[in-house]
Amino acid sequence: MSGPRMSSPPVSSPDAITRPNWPVLILAFVAVVLDGYDTIALGLSVPALADDWGVPASHFTPALSLTSLGVALGYIAVGRLTARFGCRHVVLVAVAVFTVGCLLTAWAGSILELSALRLITGFGLGAVMPAAVAQATALNPARYRQSIAVFVTMGISLGALIAGVFGSQVIGTFGWPAVFIVGAAASALLLPFLWVWLPDERAVTRSTIAPADAKHHASVARLFDPAVRTRTILLWGFAFLVFSVYYIFSSWLPTLLTSYGFSTGLAPLGSAALGVGSIIGAGVLMVGALRFRMTSVLAGTTAVAIVFLVLSAFLGADKALLLLVFGGVGLGLQAGMIGQAAVAVSLYPQATAATGVGWTSSMGRLGSVVGPIVGGALIGLGMSTSAIVLIACVPVAAALVLIVALGRTATRRSPSPAAEPVPAAS
């Protein structure tokens, strides 16, 4: 897939890029925003779908699960795909895939059709974020890599927040297909801009990686090279734990809040509080990354999550204060969910960045599957909300230990893997 190229002259290496490339940053961010929107679109539509099709909401579990499976497969495959075709082409095709998948979902007529479409759509959704992060970091100054990774990844949270705020209104006014049509239309509108202004990073940086070398750098085995093996394991463990706990609350917080006296109409405000805290957490990461190592920033935000979790366990029925506290929980946990991509970007060579981001995110996606199951089991056992919150502190504390350990191992590395030279073609 060839197309127009950015007018910027080629540079001899990524390190020669000295000014921010705003078109690439904005396009990568918007692509990830639409990714975040479509990722939760089905969850928003399930009540209306169940009513329209006359089936219990639980019957949509396969479609929801296959969406997550498709996303995980996209995360895992993206490293190989970017090595062979380049980040530009992967982003373009992935956006096209989830555009078509989202549009066809609006006309699905059975759970089988819906599930198949969501698996395909999920693959496109999973491939977009790591490729967009790798593209944006490759074509911007190396000193901003972590902040850029945070900025682009934050699009997932913003897209989910937009869907959460406006999705219910769209469904209530126009029916459940409308939420998918809106997402598909927005993605289709983005595609021409990606075609014209998203460059091939290999041409801009004059990359001379031979195909065999590119496949080698994109292999998951590179994440377990002796120099980075321990840090990979620590980062994967951190991502899994933080995602697990966040998704316990994103899935069950409205239910948990009813024990604090929230009505069923007010309980969803807890999810909104988590979302607002998540956006603030992303802002904290972007600012913090300019002055501190990302692992240090994440250690601080993870500690913040523990503090707010403990506070929430002992608060009374003050609704406003509870929402504020759970906003703090969202800040701390979402910062970890976004920051893991920034750590992966700085941990591995640029040629391995998409693989590193993709596999770390897939570990987080595994946590997002396990978390709601654990939360549902704890609720099913009849545990109080305070007990569940305190139990959730344990994996968050373990995540804090892992990120601190990762920061300490990173200070001992020499040279930095991120600065490792890329082999030239022989």
TrEMBL record:
<keyword id="KW-0812">Transmembrane</keyword>
<keyword id="KW-0472">Membrane</keyword>
<feature type="transmembrane region" description="Helical">
    <location>
        <begin position="174"/>
        <end position="198"/>
    </location>
</feature>
<feature type="transmembrane region" description="Helical">
    <location>
        <begin position="269"/>
        <end position="290"/>
    </location>
</feature>
<feature type="transmembrane region" description="Helical">
    <location>
        <begin position="297"/>
        <end position="315"/>
    </location>
</feature>
<feature type="transmembrane region" description="Helical">
    <location>
        <begin position="148"/>
        <end position="168"/>
    </location>
</feature>
<dbReference type="GO" id="GO:0005886">
    <property type="term" value="C:plasma membrane"/>
</dbReference>
<feature type="domain" description="Major facilitator superfamily (MFS) profile">
    <location>
        <begin position="24"/>
        <end position="410"/>
    </location>
</feature>
<feature type="transmembrane region" description="Helical">
    <location>
        <begin position="357"/>
        <end position="381"/>
    </location>
</feature>
<protein>
    <submittedName>
        <fullName>3-hydroxybenzoate transporter MhbT</fullName>
    </submittedName>
</protein>
<dbReference type="InterPro" id="IPR020846">
    <property type="entry name" value="MFS_dom"/>
</dbReference>
<feature type="transmembrane region" description="Helical">
    <location>
        <begin position="59"/>
        <end position="78"/>
    </location>
</feature>
<dbReference type="Pfam" id="PF07690">
    <property type="entry name" value="MFS_1"/>
</dbReference>
<dbReference type="GO" id="GO:0046943">
    <property type="term" value="F:carboxylic acid transmembrane transporter activity"/>
</dbReference>
<feature type="transmembrane region" description="Helical">
    <location>
        <begin position="90"/>
        <end position="110"/>
    </location>
</feature>
<dbReference type="InterPro" id="IPR036259">
    <property type="entry name" value="MFS_trans_sf"/>
</dbReference>
<feature type="transmembrane region" description="Helical">
    <location>
        <begin position="232"/>
        <end position="249"/>
    </location>
</feature>
<feature type="transmembrane region" description="Helical">
    <location>
        <begin position="387"/>
        <end position="406"/>
    </location>
</feature>
<keyword id="KW-1133">Transmembrane helix</keyword>
<dbReference type="InterPro" id="IPR011701">
    <property type="entry name" value="MFS"/>
</dbReference>
<feature type="transmembrane region" description="Helical">
    <location>
        <begin position="116"/>
        <end position="136"/>
    </location>
</feature>
